[in-house]
Amino acid sequence: MNPESLEEAKVLFSAFERKAKRTPKASVVICPPAVFLGALAKSSKKCALGVQDVDSHPKGAFTGSISARQAESVGAKYSIIGHSDRRAAGDTDEILAQKAAQALDAGLQVIFCVGESERDGNANYLQTIRGQILAALSKIDKKKVRMVTIAYEPVWAIGKDFSTALSPEGIHEMSIYIKKVVAEIFGKSEGLKMKVLYGGSVNSENAEKMVSEGEIDGLFVGRQSLDVDSFSKIIAYANGI
């Protein structure tokens, strides 16, 4: 629920639009609170817009919810599905699979979030990630898999000191693992093409190494997206890779 007003959202979005114009090799997607989508879409030229969540139903008596087609109708091109906040609020793998299907049916690109709450020495967390991916993607038509990007956000690293972020080597390993799981469902070719983002205590100081040394396709940025200077530097790093 940030920023708190449309005025603040416009200031941030305008700054990122200007930066995106100067960094043509970086794809920038901004996912503001849904109430700001329509207004920001009017000035959206370089930055794509996304919605933070959609309902698992296409329409109906679900007061307070937003359907994928409603979000698309006011300018959204992307939808985040399965953010750790939504999982914490009770979204199950089954619900998230339904949400992903709704978003894809509405023509939205899906940023599907996966991540473990803690790590263990036996690497059982890998099965958690695998289960989250299989539950959602196994129900998706192969023709639509290229409309999906997976954002790996380890819950234990979110919103903490930036020193807790996963190392570039660790990010690279998780990217390879995620692509292997996707390959189980859709084959090696589609697995290799799957775009993977990293999110979890990303800032302007560690972003460059994450993208270059972590060999990741992009970053899933949280609180630093509310800081014009920091987020602009992150966009510049992505553009320079």
Largest sheet: 7 strands, parallel
- Share in helix: 40-55%
Which descriptor suits the 3D outline? Answer: globular
CATH class identity: Alpha Beta
Euclidean distance between termini CA atoms: 31 Å
Low-confidence stretches: none
Number of domain modules: 1
CATH-scheme architecture: Alpha-Beta Barrel
Total helical segments: 10
Strand runs, count: 7
Strand content: 5-15%
Radius of gyration: 17 Å
Strand order of the largest sheet: 1-2-3-4-5-6-7
In short:
By secondary structure, the chain is of the alpha/beta class. The protein is about 40% helix and about 10% strand. The mean pLDDT is about 95.
Characterization of this structure:
With 241 residues, the protein is of the alpha/beta class. The chain has one domain (6-12, 29-199): Alpha-Beta Barrel (TIM Barrel), CATH 3.20.20. The protein is 42% helix and 11% strand. The chain has ten helices and seven strands. The chain has helices at residues 6-21, 37-41, 68-73, 84-88, 93-105, 125-137, 168-186, 188-193, 207-212, 228-240; strands at residues 29-30, 48-51, 78-81, 109-114, 148-152, 195-198, 218-219. It has a seven-stranded parallel sheet with strand order 1-2-3-4-5-6-7. Helix 9 links the parallel strand 6 and strand 7 (218-219). The protein is globular. The protein starts with 5 loop residues before the first helix and ends with a helix.
Notable characteristics:
241 residues; alpha/beta; TIM Barrel; seven-stranded parallel sheet; 10 helices; 7 strands; 11% strand; globular
What's the helix and strand layout?
Blueprint lengths: L5 H16 L7 E2 L6 H5 L6 E4 L16 H6 L4 E4 L2 H5 L4 H13 L3 E6 L10 H13 L10 E5 L15 H19 L1 H6 L1 E4 L8 H6 L5 E2 L8 H13 L1
Parallel strand pairs: 1-2, 2-3, 3-4, 4-5, 5-6, 6-7
